[in-house]
Amino acid sequence: MPEARVIPLRPDDDEPFVPPTPPPGWEDHLADAVEFLRRRVTGEYETDEFGFDPDLTDHVLLPVLRPFYEKWFRVDALGLENVPATGGGLVVANHSGTLPVDALMTTVALHDEHPAQRRLRLLGADLVFDVPFIGSLSRKLGTTLACNEDAERLLTEGELVGVFPEGFKGVGKPFSERYTLQRFGRGGFVSAALRTGVPIIPCAIVGAEEIYPMLGNAKTAARLLGLPYFPITPTFPLLGPLGLVPLPSKWLIAFGEPIETASYGPAAAEDPMLVFNLTDQVRENIQQSLYRLLMQRKGVFS
Amino acid sequence: MPPAVVLVTGVSRWLGGALAAELAADPSIGRVIGVDTVPPSPEMLRRLGRTEFVRADIRNPLIGKVIAAASVDTVVHMNISSTPAGSGGRAPMKELNVIGTMQLLAACQAAPSVRRFVLKSTTAVYGASPRDPAVFTETMQARLVPSGGFAKDSVDIEGYVRSFGRRRPDVDIAVLRFTNFIGPRIDSLLTGFLRMPVVPTAMGYDARVQLLHEDDALAVLVRATTGDWTGTVNVGGKGTLLLSQAIRRLGRVEAPLPTPALGSVGRISRRFGFVDYSPEQMRFLNFGRVVDTTVLRTEFGLVPRYTTAEALADYARTVPPVVSPRLVETTSTRLRSVLGRAGDAAAALGERLNPAPPAPGLRAVRDA
């Protein structure tokens, strides 16, 4: 005779009743803040060789960006399942918006909405690191210089790297050219992915184009200030600092299906034809997603 | 095979003296000859043991006679000055660094007994700029070639050593590119800088700093002198710190100044021989520099005992903090306990005003 089996009568009752833990009150938040300040004063936090400061990012920089993400731009992050939970990956996105706010919002999306809370390590132009405050804050947020050495080092360490191959051509393009991708650099990002064998995750960002609609470019002012462009928007420089407030457009950030590169082998990075083809494939993929998302979005501000 | 006769230049400074003392304590080494322009301090002289001290200027051809007479087989070149203050101005500093190295190399080239040359170089040869990759490996070159000062001298010196290597292919050459030294005894750029109670820094910038403990520097030099490794290697501790973080860990007060003001502070402090803020040091303090030490750990075969953070902590023992960490600790603990009590009181009050709902009772058995 087989042994008797115990069949639970009420399977729901297996879990004992646990009173819900009260949400952390204001005093806990304040105590955390005191503890954070203590760490900042004594220097007892970790930073990495790229200058990334996770403590500052989690307690100051991300909390500052979060209201913009949730309330101002009401970002919808789509296709997060396409971003691997562990290991290296190269997120390639379109760049727009006069100021690189899209990079910051993508960082928040991957940290707050991805189940593995992935940190996006951005690659920035050298101009970023030359500017006081902006440069050092960017490094603390995890950004490093857009060069193959840094990208490959991060990817080898299993980090998720974010790159905007259009660069200044994308972020500083006039409003009339919105959502048309510019040239994708020289394909350096593809060779970095090939050499390290990590997947390329195409990412389309809709909404950033409308935050500072760039109507004109004061080239003389730009040359005087040593900037790649000097934007003229409906509110800037007309309203002065008030013109820096971005328009509250509705954002969609969609991560597409990963394009794997490992099967080509690291030597494929030396094959310019393959690099060009992959670059075009990624660019085409992002352009198509942009069109799809634009159809999906009901209105610019809703 | 251990070297028979070692010549160490720059022996009156802490690191050179420590290396000579270490070599003199090794019975397998025949003779140790220390050279410097100034005699070592009495304390240093005691440590040097059987080291023979020759007071000579390497800018003078006399050095050739010393090398030939003693039939030196290993030369360790450490007499490279990093600050103008230490050598009486920028012009004498450059003279000592560049012309001194050229004279020494000329003497080595003429001496057939020389079979090994060790150069104490610096990671400053990589420069410091916003266009740098975050981490330099030995095969990389400066994006912006340093335009002056110690870094430029070091680039030139490495160049002369490379051409010496081409002319004397039988000589083994080891070039050690050290990061910034730190430790309780060594006198380096950063130890002087961080000893100031209020540390002026460039506003809006924060350098990444990689440090090497003096004991590890010494161990690397000893191994490079007595071993047979050849090539160029970055020498630095594991991990990095931000400059602001290092200042905080030492309990110093950071005073961020706008860059133009920092220039005049630098000129004043240089006049008093306090701390050197030359333009290239400024760039280093703005952007910092990190090097990859894989070659050191795998090929050279030495893992530094101290990480960057541990080396700084060891140095911190010798500098009394201005901001007492204990005060910070007690203040924050007290604040947190006050907050905890206030929170408890508020929670108790809330409980009294609207009590929590009772736990749900047992549910009825469902029908199948």
UniProtKB/TrEMBL annotation, chain A:
GO molecular-function terms, A-Z: acyltransferase activity
UniProt key word Cell membrane: no
Keyword Transferase included in the entry's annotation: yes
Residue ranges annotated for the Phospholipid/glycerol acyltransferase domain, each copy included: 89-208
GO cellular component, one term: membrane
Region (Disordered): 1-24
Sequence intervals crossing the membrane: none
SUPFAM superfamilies, alphabetized: Glycerol-3-phosphate (1)-acyltransferase (SSF69593)
Swiss-Prot/TrEMBL keywords: Acyltransferase, Transferase
PANTHER family (alphabetical): MONOACYLGLYCEROL_DIACYLGLYCEROL O-ACYLTRANSFERASE (PTHR22753:SF14), TRANSMEMBRANE PROTEIN 68 (PTHR22753)
Protein name: 1-acyl-sn-glycerol-3-phosphate acyltransferase
High-level lineage: Bacteria, Bacillati, Actinomycetota, Actinomycetes, Geodermatophilales
Automatic annotation (TrEMBL), chain B:
InterPro entries (UniProt xref): Epimerase_deHydtase (IPR001509), Lipid_A_modif_metabolic_enz (IPR050177), NAD(P)-bd_dom_sf (IPR036291)
Residue ranges annotated for the NAD-dependent epimerase/dehydratase domain, each copy included: 6-226
Top-rank taxon, per record: Bacteria
Pfam family, one: Epimerase
Annotated PANTHER family: BIFUNCTIONAL POLYMYXIN RESISTANCE PROTEIN ARNA (PTHR43245), NAD-DEPENDENT EPIMERASE_DEHYDRATASE (PTHR43245:SF52)
Name recorded for this polypeptide: UDP-glucose 4-epimerase
Species this chain originates from: Blastococcus aurantiacus
Lineage, highest ranks first: Bacteria, Bacillati, Actinomycetota, Actinomycetes, Geodermatophilales
